[in-house]
UniProtKB/TrEMBL annotation:
Source organism of the structure: Streptomyces parvus
Superkingdom of origin organism: Bacteria
Protein name: Iron ABC transporter permease
Family listed: Belongs to the binding-protein-dependent transport system permease family. FecCD subfamily.
Transmembrane residue ranges: 20-39, 73-94, 130-149, 161-182, 202-223
Amino acid sequence: MTFVDTAPGPARRTLRAPGVRMGGLVLLVTVVACAGLFAGRGVTPEGVRAVLLGAGDDPTAEHIVLRLRLPRVLVALVAGACLGVAGLVLQSALRNPLAGPEVTGVTPGAVLGAVTATGLGLAGWESPTAVVVAACIGGFAGAGLLWLLAGRDRGDPEQTAVYGVLVSAVLAGLTAVVLLVAPGELGSVVQWLIGSTEGRVWQHWNLLWPWAAGWGAAAWLLAGPL
């Protein structure tokens, strides 16, 4: 028995497109991960390959690859994926392709929450979980402030975007005020303002992945309504 594909060309391309995009995404992630693991002067590419295959006998190379580079790559990839998901959710919810965490009050609110909690001594780099909780509270507060200001205009994507930029600017200004009030205590919090993967180790990965998995699952379940 012979089966003949009678689907038109555009339909076949439509069905094939998600697979092509997923394949391209997997390839891109693989290339970035390999670049993060193999790039550097401390260990040669052959040494990295030997460590990953379990055939290495150099303690220094194992320390660099397994305890420094690998967690840093994982943190960078998953944190970037979380930022991408957050932007996608906001763009879908607000029906605005320009929406994102940084222009809707979410990111500035999270930074303000982390900075304020650190300045008050409620959180710090020694207790990263408390910092993350404070950042989440601040992010929700920033989004809530946008929701209140938008009011009846929540159905207008352009107007909501304008309010989002306004809320983000105000929250960023409050963060600057907090940093000016207590510059000595909050010097290291500048990482919350610009972001960095320097010094990311397994402790940071263990802190990140449960949050990423939980919110990623929530975004997946909300994909239909969005």
